[in-house]
Amino acid sequence: MKVRYLMSVCLVLAANLAVPARHTYGGPVLGETEYFAVFMEGKKVGHSIQSREVAGGKVTTTEKVSITISRADVPVTIDMTEISVETTDGKPLSFEVAQQLSVMTIRAAGVVNSKGMVELTTTSMGNEQKSTFEWPSGAVMAEGLRLLTLKKGLKEGVQYSVKIFSPGILEAADARIQIGPEQNVDLLGRVVSLTEVTTTLNMPDAGEIVSTSFVDDDLRVQKSIMPMAGLQIEMVACAKEFALGENDVLELVDKMFLASPQPLDNIGAASSATYYLSPTKDANLIIPSNDNQKVQQVVNGRVVVTVKPVAAPAGAKFPYKGKDNAILEATKPTRFVQSDRKEIIELAHRAVGNTKDAAEAARKIEAFVAGFVEHKNLSVGYASAAEVAESRQGDCSEFAVLTAAMCRAVGIPAQVVVGIAYVKNFAGLENRFGGHAWVQAYIGGKWIGLDTAFKSTGLGGYDPGHIALSIGNGNPEDFLNLVSTIGRFKIEKVILNF
Fold first, then answer.
1. Which of 102, 190, 416, 421 could bond 381 through an S-S bridge, CB–CB 3.0 to 4.6 Å?
2. Same domain for 241 and 343?
3. Could you read off the pLDDT of 381-419 as tens digits, one per residue?
4. What is the CATH number of the domain that holds 433?
C-alpha cells in the first residue's frame, strides 16, 4: 500500500525549539548575535540564531530556527523567524513570525493596542487576513521573561511561575521554572560549569512539555534538552561556522509510529475498537472524548479508548442554523482553513452540486478531495487549504484542511482532527499506528468522521483504527498534543468488535 499520510509535525518542533533557550535565561548580550546547533537523536539537524537590540525605548528580540529532517527519504526544511518588541520594562508592544514550510511561507504580525487587544495580520500566498484577540492577561514575551529571570536569580531551589506568550503558536502557556544545582556540562567537547534550569510548560490542550537548560553566571543559555514526540532534542551554543554548517540526515518516519500489539486484520469492517494504553513513567495522557470515541481513565494512569464511528443521519440540512457557539466557530474561516476564499467556495459547490442532504454533501466533498489532490507526497511541510487548492499536492494534513474548508464553505461545521491511525504497511513498517490528520463534520447533531487521505488510497476512509488526540481549526498549534503525547505511551491491547 502506497499510503502517504504521515502528519507534518516539523513546524511544531521548530516552534517549540525556541522555548527552552529564549524563555529561561537572560538573553544574548546586547547587540551581539548568538548561535546554537540543533540536534535530534544525537544528529545535527539545524541551527538557531538569537539577537537582542535596544533602541528608542524598545527592546527587540529575534530568533531564527532552521531544521531539516527526512520523511521516507524525502527531505523537509522548516525555517521560522520570531521577533518580539517590548518596552524596556518588559511590556509587550508587537511581534512578528514568519514560517517557511517547504513550498509555502506564512507570516503573522501582531500589535498590542492601548486597550490590550492584539491586532493581527496574517499573510499567506499574498492574501491577508485580519483579526483581533485579547492579549492573555499577565503574559510576557522574551524581554519580560528576561527581566523576571534576572530578578529571581540562580539560587538553587528557587521556583516561580510565569505565563509565556509564543508568537509561533499565537497562544500563551503557563510555565513553572525551577533552579537546580550547578554542574559540569559537556558543550561539544568543552566542559563548563553551568546552572541547571528546568522549565515545565503547560501547553494549551497538549499537557506538559519539560525542558532542561544550562545557563552561565550571566544567565545565558549554553545548552538545552527537550524530549518531544519520542525524540531527544538539544540546542548547544557553538561557533557560527559549526551552527550554520552541514547537517546530518535524520529519518523521522519511524519516530512517528507506534507498534500495534497484533495485526488488526480488516479493521475497516469493525464496528468498534477498544484500545488499552499504557503511559510511560510520569506521563499524563490527555486524550479527548467525542461522538466517535470514549475515554476512560483506569489505574496507574492507564487509559481505555473505545472508538465507534458514528453514522451520518440522513435528512439533515445545511447550512447549519443553530446557535451553539462552539459549532458556529467550526463554520468560520481560519488561517489554514480559508473557507471564505473564492476558489474554495467554487470547489465546494462543484463537489456538492444540487445536494440538499448534509450527509450526502459531506460524502461528496470527501470523495471529491480524495480525487482532487493528485500528487500525494511528503515534500510539503504544511500547507493551507488555499495552497492545496492551487497545488493539488500534499499528505494527510493537506487533505484534511481542504476537506474542512470545503465543508465550512457550504455551511457544514467541520474541524480538523489530529491523532494516530492504523496502517498495515508504510515505508517498510508493518502493523503500526502513525501520526495522522482527518476531519469531523457536524451533521444532524453528531460529529461524523471523514478521512479523505485514506479514501484516496482505497482504505475506505474514517474507521475504528483512528485515535483522536486533538481537535481544532487545522492550525499548526493544533498538532501540539500529538507531538507532546506520541512516544509517551504504548498500546498494550486492542479488541475489535464486528
1. 102
2. no
3. 567 898 899 888 888 888 999 999 999 999 999 999 999
4. 3.10.620.30
**Domain's final residue, options 215, 250, 285:** 250
Judged by phi (left if over 0) then psi (alpha if -120 to 50, else beta), residue 378 lies in alpha
Q: Which three cell numbers stand for residue 491?
A: 498500546
Q: Are 127 and 239 contained in the same domain? A: yes
pLDDT category of residue 338 using cuts at 50, 70 and 90: very high
Mean per-residue pLDDT, 283-288: 80
271 and 220 within one domain = no
Instruction: Of 418, 412, 294, give the one whose Cα is nearest residue 351.
Output: 412
Range of the domain at 218: 10-250
Whether residue 60 has pLDDT greater than 70: yes
Tell me whether residue 134 is in a domain: yes
Residue corresponding to grid cell 558543550: 187
Say how far apart CA 9 and CA 477 lie, in whole Å. 10
Mean pLDDT of 20-43: 68
Task: Tell me the pairing of strands 231-237 and 221-228.
Answer: antiparallel
> What type of residue sits at position 189?
G
> Is the domain of 290 the same as that of 216?
no
- What is residue 80's predicted lDDT score, i.e. its pLDDT? 87
pLDDT at 15 over 70: no
In three-state form (DSSP H/G/I as H, E/B as E, the rest C), the secondary structure along the chain is: CCCCCCCCCHHHHHHHHHHHHHCCCCCCCCCCEEEEEEEECCEEEEEEEEEEEEECCEEEEEEEEEEEEEECCEEEEEEEEEEEEEECCCCEEEEEEEEEECCEEEEEEEEECCCCEEEEEEEECCEEEEEEEECCCCCECHHHHHHHHHHHCCCCCCEEEEEEEECCCCEEEEEEEEEEEEEEEEECCEEEEEEEEEEEEEECCCEEEEEEEEECCCCCEEEEEEEECCEEEEEEECCHHHHCCCCCCCECHHHHEEECCCCCCCHHHCCEEEEEEEECCCCCCCCCCECCEEEEECHHHCEEEEECCCCCCCCCECCCCCCCHHHHHCCCCCCCCCCCCHHHHHHHHHHHCCCCEHHHHHHHHHHHHHHHCCEECCCCCCCCHHHHHHHCEECHHHHHHHHHHHHHHCCCCEEEEEEEEEEEEECCEEEEEEEEEEEEEEECCEEEEECHHHHHCCCCCCCCCEEEEEEECCCHHHHHHHHHHCCCEEEEEEEEEC
